[in-house]
Design goal:
Layout lengths: L1 H16 L13 H11 L5 E4 L2 E4 L2 E4 L4 H8 L4 E2 L3 E4 L4 E5 L6 E7 L15 E3 L2 E3 L5 H6 L9 E2 L3 E7 L7 E7 L4 E4 L6 E5 L9 E7 L2
Parallel strand pairs: 1-8
Antiparallel strand pairs: 1-2, 2-3, 4-5, 5-6, 6-7, 7-15, 8-9, 10-11, 11-12, 12-15, 13-14
Length: about 220
């Protein structure tokens, strides 16, 4: 019995210290969210984000995986343009480092397209279990989750989230929900002054940008 418990503890510690993370949902359990999750599960292309881990149809990859690793999961890209690669049916663009084959950044396109290769679509993406697609504004994403606006760094162009890296190095993982952020403005031209953030007027998320940061 003691040996069994010791083995179980070892497995749990290995899971915590390794790259693969448990997909813990931050979505609210409501009829609306359940309906969106059901639609997600019926999709041909299913992408999930959980902190530093990403999954496509159950296959795990990370920022820092190689391009060849990604090809084994996604297949050959539809677009190859000088360190940038795109898969149009999945809605994903990646860039790789200039000096090696490791992924430098990942872009998941939702509302906008990419270079006439990726077209806007209605597919759901799950971010820590929270569904998001082009028909939802960012306030919908917040309302369907246990997050609040204060959990994000809000700029004029995005809602940003910083996550610790999976491999315990100094780099952190930054998720930017790229979207036009609404503010109250007064005046005009050079005299225009930006006022407070307007959470009631948020827009759809155009894409999710994922990259490393030291900040």
């Amino acid at each position: 019995m003691k040996i069994y418990i010791l083995i179980l503890i070892t497995l749990l510690l290995s899971a915590c210290n390794g790259n693969t993370q448990v997909m813990k949902s931050k979505a609210k359990d409501t009829p609306e969210v359940r309906a969106m999750l059901e639609a997600f599960n019926k999709q041909e292309h299913r992408i999930e984000i959980n902190k530093c881990e990403l999954r496509y149809n159950g296959n795990t990859f990370f920022l820092g995986s190689t391009l060849e690793d990604l090809k084994k999961i996604f297949g050959e890209p539809d677009y190859n343009g000088h360190y940038a690669y795109a898969w149009k049916s999945i809605g994903v663009v990646v860039t790789k480092n200039k000096n090696n084959d490791n992924l430098r950044s990942i872009y998941l396109y939702i509302y906008e397209g990419y270079d006439n290769v990726i077209k806007p679509n209605d597919k759901y993406i799950l971010i820590e279990g929270i569904p998001l697609n082009r028909n939802l504004v960012f306030a919908d994403f917040i309302n369907n989750s246990t997050y609040e606006f204060d959990d994000f760094l809000i700029t004029k162009d995005s809602y940003d989230m910083i996550k610790n890296s999976c491999n315990n190095n100094k780099d952190k993982i930054k998720y930017s929900f790229d979207s036009s952020v609404p503010y109250d403005y007064s005046g005009g031209g050079h005299l225009q002054v930006r006022g407070g953030f307007r959470p009631d007027l948020t827009h759809p998320v155009e894409r999710i940008s994922i990259y490393k940061t030291r900040k």
